[in-house]
Amino acid sequence: MDYINKSFSLEGKVALVTGATYGIGFAIAKAFHKAGATIVFNNRTQESLDQGLESYKKEGIDAHGYLFDVTDEKAVEENIKKIESEVGPIDILVNNAGIIKRIPMIEMTAEEFRQVVDIDLNGPFIMAKAVLPSMIERRSGKIINICSMMSELGRETVSAYAAAKGGLKMLTRNIASEYGKYNIQCNGIGPGYIATPQTAPLREDGHPFNNFIISKTPAERWGTPEDLMGPAIFLASDASNFVNGHVLYVDGGILAYIGKQPK
Ligand code: NAP
Ligand code: GCO
């Protein structure tokens, strides 16, 4: 048990999970808390921040909430400095904040495309850039980028999201390549289809996508945010110290599966 307790523990670590008010980010933050970490999260509106603080309180977690948008470089730099002095140097960054716009590509404006890429790809770049100097100095750090099935696959209406999440997979590999020598590990988690507010419109009763996803998933169900807890602890802990530039797909087997034979 000693090995398990030591290697998977996040005791004494400070973890910043972006956009972790609910959904996947909230579940990952809860997992980190259970593993011993101090939790910091941010959101872009006071309303979301307060909602998050309330939810952490209900779980008995004393989380530190900061109000800033991951696309605002100046605000990110200022808030990272604030977090470092008020809570402590950041040991673990999870780039979780993200949005999707489901619009057929030929109907999408360049501005809409830019908004998605800005939050889902530029955001993780800006965040990673802000935490890396201290990680380099301390010769230790973990960055986890929340990728997607769309880091590997395309589908109708999600061109901007797929472009951003595909880019995020490559940013992950590049951070690992560039800073691995400082004992910094940057990996991705690629969730399959997970029941959160982001996918709520696809799960409405009778929506054809609901049955489609269940039949595309060998596990024959939607994932839950809690399905991401173990993989996130692994990638944040010493247990993964020689895992770098990898995307761990947590998808109930979607990427392994050719799909059901039509009846
Ligand atoms: P969600 O329920 O929509 O939560 C996303 C959170 O990010 C929200 O709290 C949102 O704030 C926040 N956010 C958005 N833009 C932000 C910004 N610019 N700055 C700070 N915070 C921001 O999403 P989720 O389903 O939990 O997904 C979390 C991550 O996993 C996303 O990157 C998503 O693309 C990815 N993912 C999701 C699935 C899935 O099936 N659900 C699968 C694969 C990957 P508001 O509360 O203000 O909206
Ligand atoms: C969609 C979904 C996906 C998921 C997820 C898959 O419309 O296809 O929203 O993109 O959210 O990212 O891994």
TrEMBL record:
**Gene3D superfamilies recorded:** NAD(P)-binding Rossmann-like Domain
What are the record keywords, sorted? Oxidoreductase
Q: What is the species of this protein?
A: Helcococcus ovis
EC numbers listed for it are 1.1.1.69
| Family per similarity comment | Belongs to the short-chain dehydrogenases/reductases (SDR) family.
Molecular function as annotated in GO:
gluconate 5-dehydrogenase activity
One GO biological process term is: bile acid metabolic process
Enzyme class, one word? oxidoreductase
What domain of life is recorded for the organism? Bacteria
Q: Name one Pfam family in it.
A: adh_short_C2
Q: What is this protein called?
A: Gluconate 5-dehydrogenase
